[in-house]
Structure formats: C-alpha cells, structure tokens
Amino acid sequence: MDQTKKDRPPNPRDTAGSISKMVFWWVIPLMRLGYSRPLSADDLYRVQKRDASQLLGDKLQKCWDEEVLKSKEKGKKASYVKALARCFGWEYGRVGLLAAFEECVLRIGQPLCLGGLIRYFNGEKGYTELHGWLYCTGVVMGSLLYIFSHHPFFFGTQHSGMQIRVASCSMIYRKALRLSKAALGKTTVGQMVNLLSNDVNRFDTSIIFLHYLWIGPLQTLIVVGILWNEIGPSCLAGIMLLILFVPLQSWMGQVFSRLRLATAHRTDERVRIMNEIINAMRVIKMYTWEKPFTALIEKARKSEIDVVMKTNYYRAVNMSLFFTSSKVIVFLALLTYVLTGNILTAEKVFVTSSLINNVRLVMTLFFPFGIAMGSETLISCKRLQDFLEMEELEETNRVQKSNLRPKLKDCGVTVSGLTAKWSEATEENTLTNITCSVKAGELLAVIGPVGSGKGSLLHAILGELPAKAGSILVRGKVAYASQEPWVFSGTVKQNILFGQPFNEKRYNEVIRVCALEQDMEQLSEGDLTMVGERGVALSGGQKARVNLARAVYYDADIYLLDDPLSAVDTHVGRHLFDQCIMDHLKHKVRILVTHQLQYLKPASQILVLREGHTEAIGNYNQLVNSGIDFASLLSTGHDEETSSPAKQTSTRSEKKNGIVSSLQESDKFDSSVSLHRRVRTLSNSINNTLSGSTSSLHDSLTTENIITISGVHLSDSNGSLNDNCPETPSKNAKKRSDRQLNCIEEEKSLPLLSDTDDNANNEHPEREQPNSEVRSQGSVKGEVYVKYCRAGGSWCLIIILFTLNVTTQVLFSGTDYWLSYWANGEQKRGQLVINGNETELHYSGNDSAFSYEDAPIPKGYLDTMTNVYVYTGMIAGLFFLSLGRTILFFVMCMTASRTLHNRMFKSVIRVPIKFFDTHPVGQILNRFAKDIGQIDDFLPGTMWDFVEILLNFLGIIVVIASINIWVIVPTVVLGIIFVFLRRFYLCTARDVKRLEGITRSPVFSHLSASLQGLTTIRAFEAQQIFNDDFDKHQDLHSSAWFLFLCTTRWFGICLDWISCIYIAIVTFSFMGTKDTLGGDIGLAISSAMMLSGMFQWGVRQSAEVENQMTSVERVLEYSKLEPEAPLETDESKKPRDTWPENGKIVFDDVSLQYMEDNPPVLKNLNFCIKGKEKIGIVGRTGAGKSSMITSLFRLTEPSGIIFIDDVNVQELGLHDVRGNISIIPQDPTLFSGTMRRNLDPFDQFCDEKLWKSLEEVQLKDAVSDLHGGLEANMSEGGMNLSVGQRQLVCLARAILRHNKILVLDEATANVDPRTDALIQQTIRTKFEDCTVLTIAHRLHTIMDSDRVMVLEAGRIEEFDEPHILLKNGTSRFSTLVQQTGRSATEQLREIAKRAYLARHPSVSDLQNKESETNDHDEPDNQRTCGTEMSTPEETNIPGETGATESTKL
To answer: Sheet holding 558-562: strands in order across?
Structure first.
C-alpha cells in the first residue's frame, strides 16, 4: 500500500520503429547506461499496456468465466487450458510459423548448399565458378536469414509465456482473497506461493518447445526424403537409430521427472526444517538443541543428495549419449552406404552429417522437451484449475448485511441461534446455539477459557466462519482488530491509514487514544518509519497498538476487538481500555474478546463461552450473583483455583483433526506460515520475515532459463537455446529453490529500517538497514573456483579428470578428421578406378559395372574395412571415455555440494544470536535453498557445458588450422570482439537479472502478507486496494523480466551477426583456392558453422558459470562466520556434576549492548537472587526484561560477571550454562514432527516420564486423543494446538528437564486466567525447590513472588517484596498495580499481603520490617543473598545504579 511510488519512465519500445523493434536497437541506451554505472529499480521502464497485470488478469478472468459458463451448460468440467488457448492461442500460434521456416527451410537448405559447394570443389561436370559463388552465398544466407526468423520466434514465445504467467498470477491472487476459510484449510500459503512461483513458471519455459511437437516430425519427413535421394535406403539405418533416440529421451525425461519430484520433496523437507531452525534459533540455543537439529538436517541432506546423485548418474549417461549420438548415427548411415557397394564422397558425408545433426537436435532434444514440459505444464494447469475451483467465501457466507449504511443509532449486531464449525471433517461444532445482541453505545465482552470459541464468534460475524444454523444480522460498517497483530511492509502511517484518506485531526486523536504518541517520538522516523515485513521493526506491544489504531481510524460503526490488550503492559492496557474503547468509541457498537477480567465491570454485557456453548450472558453484577462458574474465571488468587481445565483441554483436542479449535480458531489461517502465534520481541519478529532484503548477484543471474546440454553446438540453434529454456530432463532443473525460497522471500522495495527507540525496543538488537545480501562486484575470484574444486576432491582426482577430458576431446575431434580423411581416400580411390590412370581396371558383367573392392588404395590412405575398424574403435572409445569423465565430474560436483552445505550449516548453527537478529530469515534461508539449489542442479551442468565447449573450440581450431591456417586470423578477431561484447553485455545483464530477482520477491511477499492478514483485509473491504498493489508489484517485475528478455535477445542478435560475418569470411576464402579437396572444404565450413554457434554459446555459458559461482561465493561467505563461545567447557574449568545445587544468581556490574556503536540496553546491573527464590520482573516494553534473560543465557555476551552458585558462567561452555536453565518462552515454539520429538529431542526420557509430564500440565488427555499419542505429528509451528496448549507443552519440557533455575518470559500473556492459574500452580509445586524468574504483564502472576524487580530503561528502579513496594503509594510498582483498576488493585494487594505474611508468619517480624523501612526513605539497591530479609547496611554495594524504593509504613 505504498502510495508514494513515483511514475516510471515510458517504455522506449512503444515509440521505436519496426526495424528497431526487430533488432532491439532500442535497448542500446539502457546497455550504455548499465555499462557506465550499476542499474537500479528507478531505471526500469513503465510496463507496456498490453503487458499490464490488471489488463491481462481481466482478460484471462473473462475467458475463464466464459469457459466455466459453457462447461456448465454442456455438463462438462471446465478446462483452464482451453481458457488459455482462447485468450492467448492466436498470438502464440502465429510465431510458430517462424520456427517452421527456420527448421524446415533454413536448416535443410544450408547443408544442401554446402553439398553443392563440395561438388563444385570436386570438379564435377556442369559446375562453374558461378555455381561456387552461388552456393557460398546460399551457406551465408542461411545464417543471415536465421537471425530474422529465430530471434523473433524466441522473443514471441517468451513474451507469450510472460503474458500467460502474469495473467495466471493475477487470477491466483484474486482467487486467494476470495477463498473461504474451509478452502484455506485445504491449502497453505506455501502451496499458493508455489503456484505463483513454480507452476506458472512452466509457461515461461515449456511454451518455447511446444511448437516442436509438430515441427519435428515434419522436418524428419523432409530430411528422410532428401537423404533417400542422396544415399538411398542406407539413410534408414541412421534415421531408425535417430527415431529410437526419441522414445529413449522421452523415457529419460520421465525418469528425470520422477527423480526431480523425489528431489523436490526432499529439498522441500530440508528447507522446511531449515526454516524452522532459523525461525526458532533462539529457542534452540536456549534449549541446547543444536546437536539433534544438526543430526536432523544432516539426515535430510543425505536423503536429498542420494536422489540428486542418482539423477546425476542418469544425467551423465544421457549427456554421454547425446555427446556421441551424432557420431554414431552418421557412422551407421555411412557404414551401411559403403558396405552396400557405394562410393563414399565428401558431399554425401557432410550433407548427411549436417542434415542428421539438425534432425537429431530437434527430435532428440526439442521434441522430448516439448513432450516432457508440455505434460508438466498440463499438470500445473490442473493444479491451477483445482485452485480456481476452490470454495469462495460468498458461497458459505450466511451473514446478513445492510446494503445502505444506517444511522449510528440504528447500528448493531444480532446473533440468533448460531451454530458453526470450521470444517465438515470435525464432528464437534465450533460454536453451538449462540445468541447475543449488541447495539450502538454498548460493549459486549466475550470471555472464556482457551479454545472456547471466542475468536470464532468474531469470525462468524465477519462471515469467515460458515454458519450451519441460525442467523447473523450486521447493521453498519465493520472494523476488526485481530488478536495476532497484523502489519504489512510499509510505514507505520500506511498501516494505520490502510488506504483511507488522511485526516490529521482524527489521525492525531487515534495516535493519542492508542497510546502511540511516545512510540512515534521514539521511532527513528516517527510514523514514517518502515515497519518491515511482518513488523520486524516494532515490538509486540507496538504492533498490537498499531493494529488497534488501524481499526479505530477506520470510520466504522461496529468494532470487533479480538483480545487487543494482552500484548501490552498493564498500564498501557488500562489506557487503551479507558481512553480508546470506553471513551473514543463509546457511541459505537463494540465486541471485545479478552482474558483481562479486570475490564469486565464496565461492559454492557458479558458473554461467557465454554467449549463453543454459551455458559452465561448478562452484565457483571448478574453474572457474579448467578452462582455459575464465572466466579472462578474472575478469581485471580491462585490458591482459589481449584477446578481443573483438563476436561476442556481434552474436549477441545478432539477437534484438532479438523481445521482449528483453539483460542484463535481461524487465526490459524491468517498466519499459516508463521512458527509463532505472538511475535513480541524484535529478534523473534525477524524470524517471521519471509526473506532477505536485497538479492545478490547470484540471485540476479540465475540459470533457470538456460539449457546446458552438452553437444548442442550446431551453428546458431544451440546458441539460442540459452534464452530461457530451463528445466530440461537432462538437466533435472527442479526449481526447488523457488518452491520454498519464494514462499519465504521478503519485499525488497520496502527495506526494513532500524528501530532506534531507546526505550520502546532497546532490549533487542538495533537493526541497521537490514544486512543486505552481498552483491558481488566484478568477476568471481580465482580462489573461489579453487575452493570449489578442492571441496569436490583431491588434486589427484582433479588431474585425472583433466586428463580424461583432454583424451576424450582428442577422440571427438579425431572422429571428424578421420571421417574427412576416409571420405577423401574413398573419393581418390573412386577417381583412380574411373580414370584408369595407374592400374588395370577389373570389370565384372558389363562395361558399366566394376568391382570397387579390387580398386587400388591411394597412397597415404587406408582400405575401407580398416577405416571402418578404426572409426568404430574411436566411436566406442569416445563413448566410454565420455561416460567416465562425465560421471567423475558429477560425482566431484556432488561431493563439493555436500561439503559446502555441511560447512555452512555447522557455521550458521554456531553463530551468535545477534546474527539472526540482524539478518532476515529469508536472507539466511536463501543460502540454504536457492544457493545450494544452484550448486546442486545448475552449476554442474553449466560448468560442464563451458568446459566441453572450450575443449571443442580448441579442437575445432586445430582441425581448421590443419586445413587453412589463414582462418585463424578471423577467428582471433572474432574472439576479441566476442570478449568485448561479453563484457559490455554482462554489465547490464547482471543488473537486469538482479533487478528481476529483486522485483519478483515483493510478489510473493505481498501474497504471504495478504493471506496472513486476510481476515483483516476482508473485514475492512480492502481487497481492491490489495489487488491493485499486487498488480503494481507484478508490473514492476514484468518490466524487469521484459528487459531481461530484450537484452538477452540483443546480445544473441549481435553474436549471430558477427558469426554470420565469420562464416562468410571462412566460406568465401576457399573460392580463392582451387586445389582443396572436397572433404577438407566440408570439414572446414561445417566446423566454422559449428564454431560460431558454439562460440556464442560458450560466451554465454562462461558468463553463467561466473554468475552461478557467486552461489559458491555466498555459501563460502556463510561458512566462515565467527562462532559464539565453545559449547563445552574446558576440563580444567568444568563445574561439578551436581552444579547448580541452589540456583543462586548474582549479577555483578552487568551491562549489555547489542551493537558496539549503540547505547547499552542493560546498564550496570547489580543484584543477587538467592537460591529457590521466586522473582517477578516487570517494566515497560523495552525496559530490558528480555535482555536480562539474554544475558543470563549468554545469547549475547554481556560485560561484567554473572555468577550461578558462585561459578562464573562466562568461563563455562554454553551447553553447560544453557542446559542448566529451563525457560518457558514468550512465544511457545513447537516444531513439525512428533509430540515426542518436541518434548524430548535427545531421547533421554522413557514414555512413562513423558506421559507424567503431560499429565502434570493437564495435557495427557488432549495428547491421548490425538491420533498416535506421543507419535502424533505436529503441524508447522504446532498450529494444530491452541496457543495455551503450546504453552503447556513448553511447561512440560521444563518439568522434564527439572533444572534448578526456571525462566518464564511472559509465558502466560496469551492464555486465559484458568490456564494461567494452572501454569502458576504447576510451577509452585513442581519447581518449589528451584529459582524462578518470571517476566509478566499480568501482575497477579508475580504478586506472590518473594521479590519483584522493576526495570526502567535498562536499570533496576525497585527490587523488593511486592507487599513492601505496595506500601509506598508513589512507587513505580504501586503505579502499575493501580492502573489495573480499583477492584483488581485490591485483589493484587491482598495476594501480596497474604504471600508476605506466609513468608513472615510472626507479627513482630512484620513490625521490625516496617520500622526498618521507616528508617530510610531511599536506600541503595539491595543484593540480599544471606538472610531472609537483610538490612540495607548489611547488603549495600557501593556504586550500584539501581535503587530500591522501599515503602514508609
């Protein structure tokens, strides 16, 4: 929703002339600009009108709607392929005629002209010098006309493919915004991103080869006719073998498809695991789970590499067959011709060879590609069609809405007898017989335990949850604030306005009532601060308030607020409730879902839900007096919580096999790619980022669009293959990185900004402009190539491979030379027989017949059978050497890939957590997905092609030089020009391809962000705004992609022009020599034709090798990251096995800063926590609470000293420190896999202990009800459990470990009071003998703590017993308590008092304590570690910065 994007310069192609369009001269100014300086996104042109996403989407949508309508009338199933054909078929069919002209006229005419030229040089009767010049011209004209047929064909097909892709993407996005929640439950964000990335990309690739399905057979028939005329039935021997290659290639294509699918699944699994690991790295490090996850990723990588290795064995055989097939086919045809008693001439050799090579290229490469890619495209079309036919929201929506907006006094929501469930697959209803009504000016509070259906009720009102019975009447305009704050990549202001017109007065008022004024001052650029993807620049509380501000700013009548107060501090929550909900929105219709029971008293009505049923409804007093279980929900005293929620947990778990049944039943859909339900800390927020910010050069110059099949070196056809012909069967290019990485890449056009908020966010690493992916400048260094080769094997293997390559090339070039030598010998032998100059002729039968076998063998030549034997031996040796070197090469490449991946993973898993805080997830994942994918799939083939072309080039130069040494001169000139052109082209091509990669990312990011906030978007009726934004992102990518196509085409045309000139020089040069043999002429000219095409192909492939080596460079970069401290302690410093015995914690002058140039977020902390003491830690967002935990776990190394049981933890290994501290994190993290693996990844505990721990957290019944029990699979992020249940799993982990120190980091912020009470009670009983540190927003969870620590701006402001602090009415802690409301304040004070008396049973002790407190007003910060309560004089430490505000009694 970036409303500030400037208009782009017009596309120069719109005003270019016909010739300029044909030869792409209009791109030259851009090429010069790219040569002079790096290109940026601002240099991209405006997309052409005919390529606009909205226009193409509308066009295809119309055709699809017509197809659906016609199919319904005929009673048939609609076909997406037919809709595409109706929309784009004519344009695509037209360019196919150019391919037919190229293959059936030019490709056949050129060898025939070469044959005529050879006959002229052989001195055959009737051929004059004019014929020679005409045939030379014919050879040259074949190459010239090729330029004007091939490039328009390729560009036309690629352009059609782009239009189909853009139109399909537009339809996918529009459909995604209309999907019902049931339909969303049947798919995932990853699958939709896969449709946008992988499936639609088939149109870019397969569409190039489809025309060859009819051109190939037609060309074959023409060639068979010509060869029959040339060598008679003997041609069938070669043609039959050629035809046999077609089913062989098709079979190989099927094998590659199966292997590609198997590899893709394994790659998906590995990348998914990596995504989980990176997102949850903080938890993994705190739980010391590095080793099990390393084993897991190594297992996944081995499974993947095994299939890739098998693929490469097939690929090696396939490439060897392709490399030698031309030699074998020609050999069979000519051998049959000779053995049937015919004279072999140079004309027949080279005409046959050239024609068979052309047919072989089409029938063994393009034709199978057309079949394989066509079938894959049909599968993709079927997947797209299935998606387009999914259920839409309107089809299940039973909400009645007023067409016209009524007056405010008439607005309201009426729910009558509502029964609903998310999926028909679930037996139990999500909501059953719910009835309630809210009018203008009223507040309906909805409360209930975890999974009771509170969020589902709001979704039913929004029309997201399909109603099975009952009715919902909504009168008025609706605004919605989701429980999980949703923000999109843009500024804070854009997130609040959400497409609405800006009204300064209303905007400022909304900022005030949503408690954002202080945040706006602290954010680096105020409300223009970029929040980044998923709001990584904001804390959890800030996101919650921005999310609420969006709803409040929206001029609505009805406000649906899904627990907006849980993510904020108590005093902020009170401000939001009083100033915003009760004052600013007092005249509106308000429905508030909450767990904060202190806010219930002012509510007009309170709806109590349990297990989807209405337990009670009425105002506060009515419910209190009703005698129902409402009283227990209100109770905040832990000792009063007697009823167990085991029953509800068990009941709700029965629904988990459906879509959702948790606190946020439908919110599962809004964040299905997130591993966390609540993103509070900045460091955890970044883990939800979909991608890295700026793609590197590697990403810019991917080879998704390159065929790298060895042996495709025939003139210009092979050179042109470079242009966007990816995923060939022989290459097994799976596009696996796109499948995962693109569902996780972040929008680059809106960079994440550093949050320089010292107060609001200082406990987290300050972010720079997120570390952009390094973009390599210039050439890849030679050491990168050396390291890659060394990772693949020893120097000995490298030398063996080099020797095999040279030997194979000698044989390959030798076969051509031997064929020419053989043809010259047979020609001379025939002439001797006919002329009768040296021997007596032996005729048999009559004068016209003679015995060729008895003819004399010319001097310097061999007899026919010897030639046959030698040639056969060379062909056989060529095949086996080729196979051996190819297999060895790919084995070394796979070894290098495996080695590089393992090194990188071991480096990343050991890097400090700061690295993950400053590098977006997508940027890190890019290395493991796209870069490793490039190294696995594309780099070996491209590098192999380049090496083979280089060797072929050198071999051909030697062959031509042996015939005409002067041909070397134009060859050198051509090489110099090619090198210059390559340099000129690459400067621009790198930037254009990089921009194409960068501009592609926002397309996927926009889809992911839209689906995450789909409920919000639909509630605000902002679908069209997001549609328009998606079209803008697509248009920007189309502009970059179109330029990529055009610059590639321009380069191809330039090379083909120079090649054509080179062929003309070589061809016409022989007209000056009259004594050259026909075989030599044929060999030289056919080699020259091959050389030019091969040379331009080599130029492109050399560039591609360099581009893809940037992937190796990037992987090597992540392989040498600086690790954190050692995991294991030195034996000399290892603590005793029983350490820590007590859990005493001392901070001695501890400070913490995340960046060297940033101010510290913890400032000289000095305190002592006694063993077994229960400490509550409170403070405003950004006060340093989580940073204290970060220091304790040494996630970031602090300054100062931290002692645990008198042992300096900085001297210990990280596993010894972290492994002895348990934590229940703020964001309950579960991993996909079994429940057992989530509880015990090390397999340390028996089933009995696992079940016991689940029973103690009231989850035993719930897990038992899951299919498989402990072996039940958790979905990604544990989404098949509610937030509260996931929190309980984390508690079970802590119970299993039973360490002496337990940390709770706001662990109960998102659960209802009953679950909260359950967790607190379990902690009291199970961790009675442990030291417990509790960070909490809910004050009642820490009111019975032994002491409370109040933090502010990284300093300790107060640290004493809660009751003592509350005695001072002006203390910060008292202020926090008072903000909860009068009733809650009394309850909290009572809890603190009872806890205090329990710790100090003697009244005299209490009086002594009070008198001590009266003796000093502002004592120094106490570090009490000896007696139960020490005096300040006994415990004061000079120089401490914190202060205890004890209370005067």
So the answer is: 478-481, 558-562, 589-593, 443-447, 605-610, 613-618
Q: What tokens appear for 36 in the block?
A: 């002079």
Contact 1447, 1368 (CB under 8 A): yes
Helix (H, G, I), strand (E, B) or coil at 1358: strand
DSSP 8-class letter at 749:
S
pLDDT of residue 779: 60
Amino acid (1-letter code) at residue 1408: N
Cα 240 to its chain centre, rounded Å, is: 46
Average pLDDT, the chain: 76
Within a 13 Å sphere around the CA of 657, how many CA atoms are in the beta-carbon half? 17
- Three-state SS sequence of 1072-1123: HCCCCCHHHHHHHHHHHHHHHHHHHHHHHHHHHHHHHHHHHHHHHHHCCCCC
- Residue 1288 tokens, joined: 């309980």
Conformation bin of residue 1242: beta by default, left when phi > 0, alpha when psi is -120 to 50: alpha
End-to-end CA distance of the chain: 57
- Cβ neighbors of 93 (< 8 A, separation 6 or more) are none
Higher-confidence residue of 705 and 842: namely 842
639: CB partners within 8 A, 6+ apart? none
The residue whose two tokens read 């040379």 is: 1095
Tell me which residue has tokens 């070196």.
713
CA distance 776 to 774: 6
Beta carbons within 10 angstroms of residue 836's beta carbon = 10
Q: How far apart are CA 331 and CA 857, in angstroms?
A: 21
DSSP-assigned letters across all residues of 110-170 = HHHHHHHHHHHHTT-TT--HHHHHHHHHHHHHHHHHHHHHHHHHHHHHHHHHHHHHHHHHH
Under a CB-based contact definition with an 8 Å cutoff, are residues 1165 and 1336 in contact?
Answer: no
Query: Cα(346)–Cα(1076) distance, rounded to whole angstroms?
Result: 12
How confident is the model over 857-866, as pLDDT tens digits? Answer: 777 777 777 8
Between CA 209 and CA 103 the distance in angstroms is 13
Residues 705 and 205 sit within 8 Å (Cβ to Cβ):
yes
Beta pairing partners, 478? 558
Cα four-point dihedral sign 881, 882, 883, 888: positive
Query: How far is Cα 1290 from Cα 1283, in angstroms, rounded to an integer?
Result: 11
3-state secondary structure of 99: helix
Q: What is the per-residue DSSP string for 702-735? A: --TT----TT--SHHHHHHHTSS----TTTT---
Given a cut of 50, is residue 1268 above it in pLDDT? Answer: yes
Confidence class for position 812, pLDDT limits 50, 70, 90? confident
Helix-helix angle 212-231:235-279, to 10 degrees:
150
Instruction: Tell me the angle at which helices 1023-1069 and 129-178 cross, rounded to the nearest 10 degrees.
Output: 170
**Hey, which bits of 1138-1183 come out as E strands?**
1145-1152, 1162-1169, 1174-1179
In order of 530, 580, 994, the CA distances from 750 in angstroms are: 7, 31, 16
* Cβ neighbour number for residue 1120 with a 10 Å cutoff: 10
- The residue-averaged pLDDT of 466-480 equals 87
A 10 A CB-CB count for 54 gives 16
The pair phi, psi for residue 1357, each rounded to 5°, is -90, -40
Both tokens assigned to 1357: 């402001």
**Is residue 943 within a helix (H) or strand (E), and if so which, with residue range?**
helix 939-963
Q: Hey, CA dihedral for 163, 165, 171, 174, is it positive or negative? A: negative
User: What is the C-alpha to C-alpha distance for residues 42 and 6, in angstroms, rounded to an integer?
Assistant: 9
- Interhelix angle 346-361/1078-1118, rounded to 10 degrees, is 30
Q: What is the pLDDT of residues 991-1014, one digit of tens each?
A: 888 788 778 777 877 887 788 788
pTM above 0.85, yes or no: no
DSSP state, residue 530: B
